[in-house]
Amino acid sequence: MRALLLFLLFACGALGLRAENHVSWEITPTVCGPGQPFRLQVRIESDDVLGPANQVGKEIRPPRGMALRFSGQVFRANATEAVLNFSGVAPEEEGAYVLPAFNARFPAQMVKVPDITLTVSAKTGYRKEGRARAELALPVRTFYVGEKIAGSVVMRGSEQETVTGTFGLECEAEGFNFQTEGSSYTQPLPDGHGLTKPFELTPIRAGQSELNLSGIMLVNTGDRISSLNAAGRDRPFNFRRRLTVEHVPETGRPADWCGSIGKLEATPPDVSNRFPEVGEPIQLKLTLVGEGNLERIVPPEIPGSDVWDVAPLSEKRQRRGEDRRTFVYTLLPRVPGELKTPAVRFSTFDPEKKAFESVEFIPVNVKVSGNAPAKVELVSIDPSAKVGAPTAKAVTGLLAPQVSAGAKGVAKIEPLAASKPFWLSNTALLAGVLLSAAVVGVVGYLAAHPEVLVRRRARQAVRRARRDSAAALRQQDAAAYARAVTDGLRAGAAALLGAEPRALTQGDILRVLPSADADLLAEVFLAADGERYGAKDVRRSVEDDARLQAMLNTLEAQL
Amino acid sequence: MNRLLRLTILLLAGAVVPLLAGDGEAAYARGDYVGALEAWTAQARRDGVTADLLAALGNAEWKLGHKGRAMVCWERALLLDPRDPVALAGVRHAQGSGGTDRPTQTWSENYAGLLGADFWLILAALGFWGTLLTLLLPRLRRQAPGEWNQRILVTSATLFAFCIPGLYGAYTLANRAVVRRPDVAVKLTPTVLGETVNGTAEGDVLRTGRSFHGHTYVTSADGKGGWVKSTELEPIWGGGLPANLDQKQAP
To answer: In chain A, which residues have their Cβ closer than 8 Å to the Cβ of B122?
Structure first.
């Protein structure tokens, strides 16, 4: 049992061990000159059988300016090692360039290839003259959404290295449509030492984006043909360029602009028959030529008129890249005589001048024979209308417009009801009028009822007297206490009796407060007024504070 | 000398302006509707829009096949002048041979169309203030209302009462919009994937209600309601020249 457990432990340990991979690489030449082709060989040794690698080039992200392509793998069946070959062209600037780590995927496992550094130095003595090279021909300007940008990759050769072909042109750019005429379509250069690979770019959204164009050109060096040779026949190229794309400006955009961008010209119109009869269809062919997004133009419409009937537009399809587009209109003359075909005009946007230009197809003279059809007046009668009743004159068709000259109009038709100043001024006026009406009403009421103010003042005087009496009580000033109480009683009683407060005596107070203690009133009035006349012992009034305060309260309640 | 120069400039300007103003009409007369449209649009941008200018623009747009823009121009011309003959003829032509739908106007809208929304509001304001002031002023002055005061009160109160249907009609007239896109779906719900319950075409005039979630509730000429994307409509009120919806976007 113990032996079995040990065996299982060792077996699990053996399963946990991973196969060791050893990755090495070699660049030839070790130090490259600017723009010099080089060969990269990555050797992978493993404990397991490797087999062929899949999609090695997909994960590689070469640094800016460097072109690098996977050119093949040398492997043997059931071998535990693999050799991956790459060919590339060094950047134009000196320095150390790091090719980021990438994964090489084999059927049984994935092997990580570490960072690889390429040193570029001008001291290597490498000269670019005489070697085949690729150049990107693309206008340097702002591009516009929907525009057809014609570009090309110019592959120049020399006596020593001739360019024989190209393949694998790829474009990575967000916001662009990329199209070529096919992988094999190339044009030779005029001097015979090279090829041109044309392509078309169409921006589909505005903004900044980077164009990344890569491909391989086939170079014949005259040596033995081998993909493993540093000066070998397939040589990659890579271009990166930052492009700015905008929308066609809306300012100044004419009403008849129909999506056309480029330099276009109208050719003389072609009429199928210059001597038709009335009602005989003729074809009017309008051909646009020039550089531009011809296939994206919305065909201009020709509305029918009193002279011409216009059938729906047909179009003569052109081969792609033919730089021309033909619109075919079918016209039917409605009246005889010397007629002119309708003028067709539309605007195009010139991206280089950044301005709209008008393109016009001139009218063509046509002589129409035959007779005009009889004019038929359509009569519409309401069957339910009374006999002899006058029928309303129906307005049919459009009236000829008459625009008065120099009349000033409005920039925006907005109702007065949407005007904030109108409602604010009316609301302020309404508030002011209502406020003033309320003030006048209150003042008038008070003027008609003066007792309101008199009693209000009396209440205030009674309260003031109560406060004064309380203060005098705290100071044990009996005379001041008596004066405060009598002042309060006088003020309250005067408002009820309609008299002057200072003229009232304790007898008048008893008329207002019949239940009051007459003796107490006499004593407090004596204490208040009698001090001036030599009265003695005024302290008794202070002792009856509660009864006096009750009198004041009763008086205030009556006010 | 300076004065003479100014007079010369004024004379030249006076001679040139009518010529410029007639460019659009001349182009329209010879069938160059694009030229007419450009001339009138330039005039509208320079001097602002008037009823006859909008009506003329509507004609040119209609001739070019822009039904939505034409209807917007004609409807706005009728807002400025409810009796503009060119705009009236254009709307009737669009409804008749053009196939566009337009809600039948209620009696209050016809009543509002007699004077125009702004005029109704001004009259209503005058009536309101006349009534209020004739009621308040004698009280403020503490005088008994005189005979003239009574007459003004009755007149202004009557004026205000007559304005109420006009204001209501102008309000319902203002809540209309023109369909600016061809074949617009009227949906059951204000959602992108809402079920289509009806269809409407470019140039149709719809009554509009509340807006929600980028959609506007509309009622068509035959009384069917539903939701339409707000970007596919252009309100009749609140603009000058038609909005640039029909301008083809860069492909």
So the answer is: 416
